[in-house]
């Protein structure tokens, strides 16, 4: 595939083309995707972003499909807060079903919280702040449906889903076999999800699943292997920009082969012992030892340093602009 990943921008919102009939949009630090069914003209939304993402998603849909372009359904790669923030409001407003893996259902029907996020894994501000991220379940029991066991994706006959647990129990990835397009969710990502800078600016680097929410590293590694075996041509993930081609595949191979060095944190709550889950939710969490006061101090220090750096950079840019204007004046 020689498809270029193009970015579109107008007064409404900014979205990118992943592959023919596949588009994505970033809201702050997380991606959502739209997939067209070419056989009937309907489309499906993959993940629902943050609590305030609904208007942006609707505007993107309007740009792509017109004034009354509601999707046939919403497919959730998993139920973490940054992927389901607007799912209830969208499902109610559009009056459409939501689909998820059966092992994800307890966290979408108010029955179980996720394993707690781990702010001790290191890597940056996103990790340090993760103790603030909600792990409590949402409740969309009257909208959510279990994905069929045969791997087919409702409303998308060209696609199949792959169960890719480790980051969450019922995590799935989506694959189009005709051109090997993969929507990986958070099974792996294409930026450093633990770093606020890398995540916000989508610094491109193929990485393991976000460390602070990954509860079973052995399962996460096997999930990467499952996706590697598909030999994807284009990958689009929950965080970061799409990647494609040989360089991407080599990076994915390297991630799998050196997973414990590249993806698994050197310390953390789930490094030596995973959380245990089943179809009813979480049944065991390994003990955690989080010093919230120390975490707060570390977070404040990073914020102060970032603010100081931003001020210094702004001053430097202003000086450079003045010198450039002065030089331009002298030339004329």
List keywords for this structure.
alpha+beta, eight-stranded mixed β-sheet, 332 residues, disordered C terminus, single chain, globular, six-stranded mixed β-sheet, Metallo-beta-lactamase, Chain A
Helix and strand element order: EEEEEHEHHEHHEEEEEHHEEHHEEH
Our count of helices gives 10
Query: What's the CATH class label?
Result: Alpha Beta
Morphology call: globular
Oligomer: single chain
Give me the side-by-side strand order of the main sheet.
1-2-3-4-5-6-7-8
- Counting structural domains, the number is 1
Structural write-up:
The longest helix has 40 residues, at 292-331. This protein has helices at residues 54-65, 81-84, 87-94, 105-108, 125-128, 196-200, 217-228, 245-257, 259-262, 292-331, and strands at 7-9, 14-19, 22-27, 30-36, 43-46, 73-75, 98-100, 144-146, 152-153, 156-163, 172-176, 181-185, 234-237, 243-244, 276-278, 281-284. It has an eight-stranded mixed beta sheet, with helices on one face. The protein has a six-stranded mixed beta sheet with strand order 9-10-11-12-13-14. The protein is an alpha+beta fold and 332 residues long. A hairpin with a 2-residue loop joins β9 (152-153) and β10 (156-163). The termini are far apart.
């Amino acid at each position: 595939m020689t498809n270029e990943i193009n970015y579109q921008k107008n007064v409404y919102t900014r979205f990118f083309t992943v592959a023919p009939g596949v588009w994505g949009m970033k809201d702050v630090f997380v991606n959502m995707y739209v997939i067209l069914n070419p056989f009937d003209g309907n489309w499906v939304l993959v993940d629902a972003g943050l609590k305030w993402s609904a208007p942006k998603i609707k505007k993107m849909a309007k740009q792509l499909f017109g004034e009354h372009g509601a999707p046939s359904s919403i497919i959730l790669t998993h139920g973490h807060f940054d992927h389901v923030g607007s799912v209830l409001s969208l499902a109610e407003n559009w009056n459409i079903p939501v689909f998820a893996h059966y092992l994800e259902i307890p966290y979408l029907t108010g029955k179980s919280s996720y394993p707690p996020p781990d702010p001790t894994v290191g890597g940056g501000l996103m990790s340090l702040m993760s103790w603030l991220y909600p792990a409590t379940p949402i409740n969309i029991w009257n909208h959510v449906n279990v994905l069929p066991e045969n791997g087919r994706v409702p409303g998308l006959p060209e696609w199949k889903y792959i169960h890719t647990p480790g980051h969450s129990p019922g995590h799935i990835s989506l694959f189009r076999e005709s051109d090997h397009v993969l929507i990986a969710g958070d099974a792996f990502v294409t930026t450093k999800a633990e770093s606020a800078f890398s995540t916000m600016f989508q610094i491109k680097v193929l990485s393991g699943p976000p460390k602070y929410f990954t509860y079973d590293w052995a399962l996460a590694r096997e999930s990467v292997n499952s996706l590697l075996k598909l030999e994807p041509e284009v990958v689009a993930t929950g965080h970061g920009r799409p990647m494609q081609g040989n360089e991407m595949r080599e990076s994915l191979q390297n991630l799998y082969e050196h997973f414990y060095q590249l993806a698994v944190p050197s310390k953390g709550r789930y490094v030596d012992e995973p959380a245990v889950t089943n179809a009813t939710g979480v049944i065991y969490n390994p003990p955690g030892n989080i010093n919230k006061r120390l975490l707060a101090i570390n977070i404040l220090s990073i914020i102060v340093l970032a603010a100081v750096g931003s001020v210094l950079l702004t001053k430097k840019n202003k000086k450079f602009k003045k010198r450039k204007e002065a030089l331009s004046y002298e030339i004329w």
